Amino acid sequence: MNIPENFKYTKDHEWLKIDGDTAWVGITDFAQKELGDIVFVEVDTVDETLDKEEIFGTIEAVKTVSDLFMPVSGEILEFNETLESAPETINSDPYGEGWIVKIKMSNPAEADELYDAKGYNELTGA
């Protein structure tokens, strides 16, 4: 299983890639494998500011729909529009082109509370 070293991870299997006070959010390789073929992603919270662990959207696979949770507090700046026509990008490239939202973090220190790659690997037992 792929777990990039320079990302942060949540217990809900989202990842956070940080650049200053901006971050990209997606779901982990583990999560996309558990969900199976992704068929739809909905994010209707663009331009909204949400608290850590608030639901920012949903992701639909062939057999299930799952909520997406904010890893840290912040404003949703952008939704990855590629996912509207090609949601399966999350399956093929969960840490790259399969990012879901770009956010401006309200409190970057919250990222320190998230798992690093080693901790996430232990959480998933991968």
Please outline the helices and strands:
Layout: E1 8-9, E2 14-19, E3 22-27, H1 29-35, E4 38-42, E5 49-50, E6 55-61, E7 65-69, E8 74-79, H2 82-85, H3 89-92, E9 101-105, H4 117-124
Description:
By secondary structure, the chain is an alpha+beta fold. It is built from four helices and nine strands. The strands form two sheets. Strands 1-2-3-9-8-5 form a six-stranded antiparallel beta sheet. Strands 4-6-7 form a three-stranded antiparallel beta sheet. A hairpin with a 2-residue loop joins strand 2 and strand 3. The protein starts with 7 loop residues before the first strand and ends with a helix.
Features:
six-stranded antiparallel β-sheet, single chain, alpha+beta, 9 strands, 4 helices, OB fold (Dihydrolipoamide Acetyltransferase, E2P), globular
What's a quick, concise take on this entry?
The protein is of the alpha+beta class and 126 residues long. Helix content is 18%, strand content 35%. The chain has a single domain, classed as OB fold (Dihydrolipoamide Acetyltransferase, E2P) (Beta Barrel), CATH 2.40.50.100.
